[in-house]
Amino acid sequence: MSKLEIIDLHVSVDGKEILKGVNLEMNTGEFHVLMGPNGTGKSTLVSTIMGHYKYEVTKGQILLDGKDVLKMSVDERSRKGIFLAMQYPSEIEGVTNADFIKAALHARMAENEKFSLIKYIKSFEQATSQLKMRADLPQRYVNVGFSGGEKKRNEILQMKMLKPKFALLDEIDSGLDVDALRVVGENVNDMKASDFGALIITHYERLLDYLDVDKVHILMQGKIITSGGKELIAKIDQEGYDWVKDEFDLEDEQSRPSGIIGTCAVKESLGEKND
Amino acid sequence: MTKAKKLFDNKILDLNKISLLPSTSKTIFKNELKGEIINIDLAKSATLTYITFDNGKLNKFSNDFVANLAEDAFLKVYNIVTSDKASSINGIINLNGDNAKVEVINLLLVTKKAALDSFIDIYHNTKNTTSELANYAIAKDEADIILNNNATIKKKASKAIAKQKSKGLTLSTLCKIKALPNLYIDEYDVVANHACSIGSINKEDLFYLMSRGLTKDEASEIVVMGYVRPILDHIEDPTIRKQIEKGFAEKLLN
After folding, report:
1. Chain-wide mean pLDDT for chain A?
2. Selecting from 3.40.50.300, 3.20.20.140, 3.40.50.12280, 3.40.50.720, what CATH number does the domain A3-274 have?
3. Among residues B122, B117, B128, B86, which one has the least CA distance to residue B104?
4. What is the model's pTM?
5. ipTM confidence
6. Do A75 and B203 touch (CB under 8 A)?
7. Sequence ranges of the domains in chain B
8. Is the CB of A75 less than 8 angstroms away from the CB of B229?
9. Domain-by-domain residue ranges, chain A?
10. Do residue A92 and residue B223 have CB atoms under 8 angstroms apart?
């Protein structure tokens, strides 16, 4: 069993503090869901765990099995077992999916380990068929010309092939039609095991219908305000987030003083861009 | 002059001249050019694929050619460089016959302190002629690449099409790529355009690749090879393509 711990994490972007003391602990074998209104820092949290260059950690710790993740480079974090399925995956021209995943698998192999091409082809074919992806996928360039739904499925394909300890799924359900949502949901759920856990960001209950969720966390105003079980999902789906504000006496973000950028722009928050 | 000497002289002349008869087609590959001017003559409806490859083995690779195209002739030129030594490309292409067409692709990787000067000069001398020139340049270390592109559309060369495109990728803060596109147009009814973009590797792409476990160097190599591979896909001969791919991989890693 592995453990991922986030301790009093403070993160800033361009000098603006987005995360203001996040605490979260998860083990493999668990599925955690992170919910919250737009612009509260959910994507900031998962991107920071992965090591995105834009985010500056000003305070706090991220530990993977007791080891300091913040001291690791992005690739090292990946090789240690962290995987981020991105909201907007990059398109890489000229690199086929098959070659890309092969290179990523090579990168995490031990020095004397031998790569079995036959095993690789078999598991690639099995994963693409389970995700009901197009047969020409291995030859297609990574995400180039993919629809929004295909890109999301491709992220899950990479996750299945790379077998991380912890997957961070950033709105993996956006852009998916009903059938694709079921396929993705079932595939993620099938991975749940004693050596795999996931932190799932979503706005919708539908994806969670397919997942065996253990804990739900609500992130608002840069902090995890409350955590609970699946009952929280249903409550948010029915009532939104206003009750959280009332129950935990949160100040309305709209009423906070505006920051002034330059002389002709007033910005109240980073808004959806930072979600 | 002895008979042997005469034969030898003719051979030299033959080496520097590529002539295609009407309605014939051919692919020619050259990887050792030391400054001799290659004369290319394409007769009516002839098609030539002319590939040059400078892999940095020669101290001064000098790729000079002059091409004359008759009616309906089609010339495809691939100038490929993977070098850490000074080199140059000088090409003059005359589109002399109606419907003559030329496509030039320069795929250039220059490393260390090397400088590369490319000069492609295309003349649309008659109507319905087409030229497409694309530069894909990658500079590393302290390399310096200059891309001079000229297209001249002469009077009465109506319905001519001249396109120029330059894409540059800088892999260090000290390297330089300069694109100088020029279109000289003396006729009204034509299509002529040029486009240029030069920049470093997209940080988001690097992050994406690294988030899958590839080191920064491995990720950079993948991005660069990804930039190169779609262009190499145009080269049909697998042996030549493999040789060129190897050249890129070697120069990128060193």
Report:
1. 89
2. 3.40.50.300
3. B122
4. 0.79
5. 0.89
6. no
7. 3-201
8. no
9. 3-274
10. yes
